[in-house]
Specification:
This protein has helices spanning 11-23, 35-48, 59-69, 87-94, 113-119, 139-148, 200-209, 231-242, 244-261, 292-301, 318-323, 330-338, 350-367, and strands at 52-56, 77-81, 98-102, 124-128, 152-156, 164-165, 168-169, 176-180, 193-197, 268-269, 277-278, 284-288, 339-342. By secondary structure, it is of the alpha/beta class. It binds pyridoxal-5'-phosphate (PLP).
Length: 368
Protein backbone atom coordinates (compact mmCIF):
# COMPACT_ATOMS: atom_id res chain seq x y z
CA UNK A 1 0.00 0.00 0.00
CA UNK A 2 1.21 3.50 -0.83
CA UNK A 3 0.03 5.26 2.33
CA UNK A 4 -1.62 8.67 2.27
CA UNK A 5 1.39 10.04 4.08
CA UNK A 6 4.77 8.89 5.31
CA UNK A 7 7.00 10.83 7.71
CA UNK A 8 10.44 11.54 6.24
CA UNK A 9 12.65 10.46 9.14
CA UNK A 10 16.41 10.20 8.69
CA UNK A 11 19.56 9.58 10.70
CA UNK A 12 19.42 13.17 11.99
CA UNK A 13 16.14 12.58 13.82
CA UNK A 14 17.36 9.23 15.20
CA UNK A 15 20.56 10.81 16.53
CA UNK A 16 18.60 13.70 18.01
CA UNK A 17 16.42 11.27 19.99
CA UNK A 18 19.52 9.47 21.29
CA UNK A 19 21.04 12.78 22.36
CA UNK A 20 17.99 13.59 24.49
CA UNK A 21 17.95 10.10 26.00
CA UNK A 22 21.63 10.37 26.87
CA UNK A 23 21.07 13.78 28.48
CA UNK A 24 18.49 12.19 30.82
CA UNK A 25 16.54 15.48 30.58
CA UNK A 26 13.39 14.00 29.10
CA UNK A 27 11.15 16.88 30.05
CA UNK A 28 11.26 20.19 31.84
CA UNK A 29 8.26 21.70 33.58
CA UNK A 30 9.78 25.16 34.00
CA UNK A 31 8.07 28.24 32.53
CA UNK A 32 10.60 28.48 29.68
CA UNK A 33 10.68 24.73 28.97
CA UNK A 34 13.72 22.52 28.38
CA UNK A 35 16.80 23.11 26.23
CA UNK A 36 15.45 21.34 23.14
CA UNK A 37 12.00 22.89 23.47
CA UNK A 38 13.54 26.38 23.67
CA UNK A 39 15.73 25.76 20.63
CA UNK A 40 12.80 24.34 18.67
CA UNK A 41 10.67 27.36 19.57
CA UNK A 42 13.41 29.75 18.49
CA UNK A 43 13.81 28.25 15.03
CA UNK A 44 10.06 27.80 14.61
CA UNK A 45 9.43 31.50 15.40
CA UNK A 46 12.18 32.54 12.98
CA UNK A 47 10.75 30.33 10.26
CA UNK A 48 7.20 31.66 10.64
CA UNK A 49 8.46 35.24 11.08
CA UNK A 50 6.95 35.95 14.50
CA UNK A 51 8.29 37.04 17.89
CA UNK A 52 7.12 34.00 19.83
CA UNK A 53 6.49 30.30 19.27
CA UNK A 54 5.21 28.27 22.20
CA UNK A 55 5.52 24.50 21.81
CA UNK A 56 2.80 22.21 23.17
CA UNK A 57 1.91 18.54 22.88
CA UNK A 58 -0.61 18.67 19.99
CA UNK A 59 -2.36 20.94 17.52
CA UNK A 60 -5.53 20.54 19.55
CA UNK A 61 -3.66 21.72 22.66
CA UNK A 62 -2.39 24.70 20.63
CA UNK A 63 -5.97 25.75 19.76
CA UNK A 64 -7.23 25.10 23.29
CA UNK A 65 -4.40 27.14 24.83
CA UNK A 66 -4.91 29.99 22.33
CA UNK A 67 -8.62 30.17 23.19
CA UNK A 68 -7.85 29.98 26.93
CA UNK A 69 -5.33 32.82 26.55
CA UNK A 70 -8.11 34.94 25.01
CA UNK A 71 -10.37 33.95 27.91
CA UNK A 72 -12.92 32.23 25.71
CA UNK A 73 -15.56 30.68 27.94
CA UNK A 74 -19.22 30.68 28.89
CA UNK A 75 -21.19 33.32 27.00
CA UNK A 76 -18.54 33.68 24.25
CA UNK A 77 -19.10 32.77 20.62
CA UNK A 78 -16.51 31.48 18.19
CA UNK A 79 -16.89 30.97 14.45
CA UNK A 80 -15.07 28.59 12.17
CA UNK A 81 -15.56 26.74 8.94
CA UNK A 82 -17.82 23.68 8.94
CA UNK A 83 -15.31 21.71 6.88
CA UNK A 84 -12.30 21.05 9.05
CA UNK A 85 -10.93 18.68 11.67
CA UNK A 86 -13.26 18.44 14.67
CA UNK A 87 -10.89 19.99 17.20
CA UNK A 88 -10.94 23.38 15.47
CA UNK A 89 -14.39 23.59 17.08
CA UNK A 90 -14.54 21.05 19.94
CA UNK A 91 -11.93 23.16 21.77
CA UNK A 92 -14.47 26.01 22.03
CA UNK A 93 -17.15 23.63 23.29
CA UNK A 94 -14.76 22.23 25.89
CA UNK A 95 -14.43 25.78 27.21
CA UNK A 96 -18.21 26.10 27.35
CA UNK A 97 -18.31 28.62 24.50
CA UNK A 98 -20.87 28.66 21.68
CA UNK A 99 -19.81 27.67 18.17
CA UNK A 100 -21.22 28.94 14.89
CA UNK A 101 -20.25 27.23 11.64
CA UNK A 102 -19.50 29.15 8.46
CA UNK A 103 -19.68 27.73 4.95
CA UNK A 104 -16.64 27.39 2.66
CA UNK A 105 -15.56 28.41 -0.84
CA UNK A 106 -15.62 25.25 -2.97
CA UNK A 107 -12.60 26.36 -5.00
CA UNK A 108 -10.20 26.42 -2.03
CA UNK A 109 -12.24 24.73 0.74
CA UNK A 110 -11.51 27.67 3.02
CA UNK A 111 -13.94 29.86 4.94
CA UNK A 112 -16.42 31.85 2.84
CA UNK A 113 -15.93 35.53 3.56
CA UNK A 114 -19.51 36.29 2.47
CA UNK A 115 -20.99 33.74 4.84
CA UNK A 116 -18.66 34.93 7.60
CA UNK A 117 -19.82 38.53 7.07
CA UNK A 118 -23.42 37.33 7.32
CA UNK A 119 -22.83 35.40 10.55
CA UNK A 120 -20.43 37.67 12.45
CA UNK A 121 -21.98 39.87 15.10
CA UNK A 122 -21.13 41.64 18.32
CA UNK A 123 -21.67 38.30 20.09
CA UNK A 124 -18.52 36.84 18.52
CA UNK A 125 -15.16 36.74 20.28
CA UNK A 126 -12.93 34.68 17.98
CA UNK A 127 -12.95 33.55 14.38
CA UNK A 128 -10.74 30.62 13.38
CA UNK A 129 -10.01 30.52 9.65
CA UNK A 130 -8.53 27.16 8.65
CA UNK A 131 -5.83 26.88 5.99
CA UNK A 132 -7.23 23.59 4.82
CA UNK A 133 -4.97 21.22 2.88
CA UNK A 134 -2.25 23.89 3.24
CA UNK A 135 -4.00 26.44 1.03
CA UNK A 136 -4.26 29.77 2.87
CA UNK A 137 -7.67 31.23 3.67
CA UNK A 138 -8.42 34.79 2.47
CA UNK A 139 -6.85 36.35 5.54
CA UNK A 140 -7.09 40.05 4.62
CA UNK A 141 -10.83 39.78 4.10
CA UNK A 142 -11.34 37.61 7.20
CA UNK A 143 -9.35 40.05 9.33
CA UNK A 144 -11.25 43.02 7.88
CA UNK A 145 -14.60 41.43 8.73
CA UNK A 146 -13.41 40.45 12.20
CA UNK A 147 -12.12 43.94 12.94
CA UNK A 148 -15.59 45.41 12.35
CA UNK A 149 -16.67 43.72 15.58
CA UNK A 150 -13.35 43.67 17.48
CA UNK A 151 -13.16 39.89 17.02
CA UNK A 152 -9.83 38.06 17.39
CA UNK A 153 -8.52 36.03 14.45
CA UNK A 154 -6.81 32.79 15.48
CA UNK A 155 -5.45 30.96 12.46
CA UNK A 156 -5.87 27.20 12.42
CA UNK A 157 -2.57 26.62 10.64
CA UNK A 158 -2.42 22.93 11.63
CA UNK A 159 -1.97 21.92 7.98
CA UNK A 160 -0.21 25.00 6.66
CA UNK A 161 3.31 25.26 8.07
CA UNK A 162 5.33 26.97 5.32
CA UNK A 163 2.30 28.12 3.31
CA UNK A 164 2.29 31.81 2.47
CA UNK A 165 -0.50 34.35 2.19
CA UNK A 166 0.55 37.33 0.05
CA UNK A 167 4.17 36.47 0.76
CA UNK A 168 3.74 36.16 4.54
CA UNK A 169 3.76 32.88 6.44
CA UNK A 170 0.40 31.57 7.61
CA UNK A 171 0.29 31.70 11.39
CA UNK A 172 1.87 35.16 11.42
CA UNK A 173 -1.17 37.24 10.46
CA UNK A 174 -3.81 36.56 13.10
CA UNK A 175 -3.40 37.37 16.80
CA UNK A 176 -2.19 33.76 17.11
CA UNK A 177 -1.51 30.84 14.77
CA UNK A 178 -1.96 27.20 15.81
CA UNK A 179 0.11 24.45 14.22
CA UNK A 180 0.05 20.65 14.46
CA UNK A 181 3.06 18.34 14.28
CA UNK A 182 0.99 15.16 14.13
CA UNK A 183 2.46 12.24 12.19
CA UNK A 184 0.77 13.13 8.89
CA UNK A 185 1.77 16.77 8.99
CA UNK A 186 4.41 18.37 6.78
CA UNK A 187 6.86 18.49 9.69
CA UNK A 188 6.26 15.98 12.44
CA UNK A 189 7.55 14.77 15.75
CA UNK A 190 4.79 12.19 16.24
CA UNK A 191 2.51 14.41 18.27
CA UNK A 192 3.04 18.08 18.88
CA UNK A 193 1.76 21.58 18.37
CA UNK A 194 2.91 25.19 18.36
CA UNK A 195 1.22 28.54 18.97
CA UNK A 196 2.78 31.54 17.23
CA UNK A 197 2.19 35.17 18.18
CA UNK A 198 3.75 38.64 18.11
CA UNK A 199 2.01 39.58 21.36
CA UNK A 200 4.35 39.47 24.39
CA UNK A 201 1.56 39.26 26.98
CA UNK A 202 -0.19 36.40 25.18
CA UNK A 203 3.12 34.53 24.85
CA UNK A 204 3.62 34.76 28.63
CA UNK A 205 0.08 33.59 29.28
CA UNK A 206 0.45 30.68 26.87
CA UNK A 207 3.59 29.49 28.66
CA UNK A 208 1.69 29.57 31.93
CA UNK A 209 -1.34 27.76 30.49
CA UNK A 210 0.79 24.93 29.09
CA UNK A 211 2.20 24.17 32.52
CA UNK A 212 -0.58 24.44 35.13
CA UNK A 213 -0.65 28.25 35.12
CA UNK A 214 2.73 28.26 36.90
CA UNK A 215 5.57 30.78 36.60
CA UNK A 216 8.19 29.79 39.16
CA UNK A 217 6.80 26.38 40.07
CA UNK A 218 3.95 25.36 42.39
CA UNK A 219 2.57 28.90 42.17
CA UNK A 220 -0.37 28.47 39.76
CA UNK A 221 -1.64 31.91 38.80
CA UNK A 222 -4.17 31.08 36.07
CA UNK A 223 -6.01 27.95 35.00
CA UNK A 224 -3.68 25.70 33.08
CA UNK A 225 -3.00 22.11 32.16
CA UNK A 226 -0.07 19.93 31.31
CA UNK A 227 0.24 20.67 27.59
CA UNK A 228 4.04 20.52 27.54
CA UNK A 229 6.01 19.21 24.60
CA UNK A 230 8.51 16.52 25.70
CA UNK A 231 12.18 17.11 24.86
CA UNK A 232 12.38 14.12 22.51
CA UNK A 233 9.63 15.58 20.33
CA UNK A 234 11.32 18.98 20.30
CA UNK A 235 14.63 17.40 19.26
CA UNK A 236 12.92 15.61 16.37
CA UNK A 237 11.12 18.82 15.44
CA UNK A 238 14.41 20.74 15.23
CA UNK A 239 15.78 18.27 12.67
CA UNK A 240 12.51 18.21 10.73
CA UNK A 241 12.36 22.00 10.52
CA UNK A 242 15.85 22.09 9.02
CA UNK A 243 14.45 20.07 6.11
CA UNK A 244 11.14 21.84 5.56
CA UNK A 245 12.12 23.68 2.39
CA UNK A 246 13.08 20.43 0.69
CA UNK A 247 9.85 18.78 1.94
CA UNK A 248 7.70 21.55 0.45
CA UNK A 249 9.66 21.58 -2.80
CA UNK A 250 9.14 17.84 -3.25
CA UNK A 251 5.44 18.04 -2.38
CA UNK A 252 4.93 20.89 -4.84
CA UNK A 253 6.70 18.91 -7.54
CA UNK A 254 4.50 15.87 -6.88
CA UNK A 255 1.30 17.95 -6.79
CA UNK A 256 2.10 19.74 -10.03
CA UNK A 257 2.94 16.41 -11.66
CA UNK A 258 -0.51 15.10 -10.71
CA UNK A 259 -2.18 18.32 -11.89
CA UNK A 260 -0.46 18.01 -15.25
CA UNK A 261 -1.26 14.32 -15.61
CA UNK A 262 -4.92 14.78 -14.60
CA UNK A 263 -5.52 17.97 -16.56
CA UNK A 264 -7.46 16.26 -19.34
CA UNK A 265 -9.73 14.18 -17.12
CA UNK A 266 -13.35 15.26 -17.13
CA UNK A 267 -15.78 15.59 -14.23
CA UNK A 268 -13.12 16.27 -11.65
CA UNK A 269 -11.73 19.51 -10.20
CA UNK A 270 -8.04 19.71 -9.40
CA UNK A 271 -6.53 21.67 -6.52
CA UNK A 272 -5.37 25.19 -7.33
CA UNK A 273 -3.29 27.95 -5.81
CA UNK A 274 -5.00 31.34 -5.81
CA UNK A 275 -2.90 34.37 -6.80
CA UNK A 276 -2.56 35.37 -3.12
CA UNK A 277 -1.46 31.90 -2.06
CA UNK A 278 1.62 29.76 -1.94
CA UNK A 279 0.51 26.38 -0.60
CA UNK A 280 2.74 23.86 1.17
CA UNK A 281 0.75 21.08 -0.55
CA UNK A 282 0.39 19.21 2.71
CA UNK A 283 -2.69 17.44 1.29
CA UNK A 284 -3.49 16.94 -2.41
CA UNK A 285 -7.26 16.91 -2.80
CA UNK A 286 -9.38 16.29 -5.88
CA UNK A 287 -13.11 16.95 -6.22
CA UNK A 288 -14.91 14.24 -8.19
CA UNK A 289 -18.37 14.89 -9.58
CA UNK A 290 -19.94 11.54 -8.72
CA UNK A 291 -19.34 8.12 -7.14
CA UNK A 292 -16.55 9.27 -4.82
CA UNK A 293 -16.80 6.28 -2.51
CA UNK A 294 -16.54 3.80 -5.38
CA UNK A 295 -13.50 5.63 -6.72
CA UNK A 296 -11.98 5.58 -3.24
CA UNK A 297 -12.57 1.85 -2.90
CA UNK A 298 -11.09 1.18 -6.36
CA UNK A 299 -7.93 3.07 -5.41
CA UNK A 300 -7.57 1.35 -2.05
CA UNK A 301 -8.11 -2.12 -3.45
CA UNK A 302 -5.18 -1.42 -5.76
CA UNK A 303 -2.87 -0.22 -3.01
CA UNK A 304 -3.31 3.54 -3.24
CA UNK A 305 -4.04 4.89 0.24
CA UNK A 306 -6.48 7.58 -0.87
CA UNK A 307 -8.33 9.19 2.05
CA UNK A 308 -11.23 11.56 2.61
CA UNK A 309 -10.56 14.71 4.61
CA UNK A 310 -13.35 14.98 5.81
CA UNK A 311 -16.33 12.68 5.21
CA UNK A 312 -18.71 14.43 7.64
CA UNK A 313 -19.16 18.22 7.69
CA UNK A 314 -19.13 19.55 11.23
CA UNK A 315 -22.77 20.71 11.14
CA UNK A 316 -23.75 17.04 10.70
CA UNK A 317 -21.21 15.44 13.07
CA UNK A 318 -22.75 13.77 16.11
CA UNK A 319 -20.88 15.76 18.73
CA UNK A 320 -21.86 19.08 17.17
CA UNK A 321 -25.47 18.05 16.55
CA UNK A 322 -25.66 17.82 20.35
CA UNK A 323 -24.08 21.20 21.05
CA UNK A 324 -24.48 23.50 18.05
CA UNK A 325 -27.69 24.85 16.57
CA UNK A 326 -28.08 23.14 13.19
CA UNK A 327 -27.72 25.20 10.04
CA UNK A 328 -27.27 23.84 6.52
CA UNK A 329 -23.84 24.50 4.98
CA UNK A 330 -24.28 23.60 1.31
CA UNK A 331 -20.64 23.84 0.24
CA UNK A 332 -19.27 22.00 3.28
CA UNK A 333 -21.78 19.22 2.67
CA UNK A 334 -20.94 19.13 -1.02
CA UNK A 335 -17.19 18.92 -0.33
CA UNK A 336 -17.61 16.17 2.27
CA UNK A 337 -19.44 14.08 -0.32
CA UNK A 338 -17.10 14.69 -3.27
CA UNK A 339 -13.46 15.11 -2.22
CA UNK A 340 -10.66 12.61 -1.93
CA UNK A 341 -6.97 13.04 -1.29
CA UNK A 342 -4.02 11.25 -2.86
CA UNK A 343 -0.53 10.59 -1.44
CA UNK A 344 1.79 13.55 -2.15
CA UNK A 345 4.49 13.08 0.50
CA UNK A 346 8.09 13.99 -0.32
CA UNK A 347 9.60 10.50 -0.36
CA UNK A 348 7.20 9.13 -3.01
CA UNK A 349 9.28 7.52 -5.73
CA UNK A 350 8.77 8.16 -9.44
CA UNK A 351 7.48 4.62 -9.76
CA UNK A 352 4.92 5.18 -7.01
CA UNK A 353 3.82 8.51 -8.47
CA UNK A 354 3.30 6.94 -11.88
CA UNK A 355 1.38 4.09 -10.30
CA UNK A 356 -0.95 6.50 -8.46
CA UNK A 357 -1.52 8.37 -11.74
CA UNK A 358 -2.29 5.15 -13.61
CA UNK A 359 -4.75 3.83 -11.03
CA UNK A 360 -6.45 7.20 -10.54
CA UNK A 361 -6.96 7.65 -14.28
CA UNK A 362 -8.38 4.14 -14.51
CA UNK A 363 -10.75 4.87 -11.63
CA UNK A 364 -12.00 8.11 -13.15
CA UNK A 365 -12.54 6.49 -16.54
CA UNK A 366 -14.33 3.56 -14.91
CA UNK A 367 -16.73 5.54 -12.73
CA UNK A 368 -17.21 8.96 -14.35
C1 LIG B 1 -7.21 21.60 10.54
C2 LIG B 1 -6.74 20.92 11.78
N1 LIG B 1 -6.99 21.48 12.98
C3 LIG B 1 -6.57 20.91 14.11
C4 LIG B 1 -5.87 19.72 14.12
C5 LIG B 1 -5.49 19.10 15.43
O1 LIG B 1 -4.14 18.78 15.53
P1 LIG B 1 -3.64 17.51 16.38
O2 LIG B 1 -4.08 16.28 15.69
O3 LIG B 1 -2.16 17.68 16.42
O4 LIG B 1 -4.24 17.66 17.73
C6 LIG B 1 -5.57 19.10 12.91
C7 LIG B 1 -4.79 17.85 12.84
O5 LIG B 1 -5.27 16.78 12.74
C8 LIG B 1 -6.03 19.70 11.71
O6 LIG B 1 -5.79 19.13 10.53
Amino acid sequence: MIPINKPAIGEEEKNAVLKVLESLQLTDSSFEGGKFVREFEKIFAEYVGVKHAIAVNSGTSAILAALMALEVGKGCETLTSGFTFASTATTSLLLDARVKFVDIELETYSISVNDLARKLSGAAKVVLPVHLYGHPAQLDEVIEEAEKYGVFVVEDAAQSLGSKYRGKMTGSLGIMGCFSLYATKIVTCGEGGVITTNDDALAEKLKMIRSHGQVKGYDSKVLGLNLRMPQIEAAIGIEQLKKIDSFIKARRKNALFYNEEFSKLENIRLPIEKDYAEANWSIYTVYVKRRRNEILQYLRERGVGATVYYPIPLNRMEVFMKHVEFEPLPNCEDAAEHVLSLPVYPTLTEKELNYVVKVFKEAIRTFL
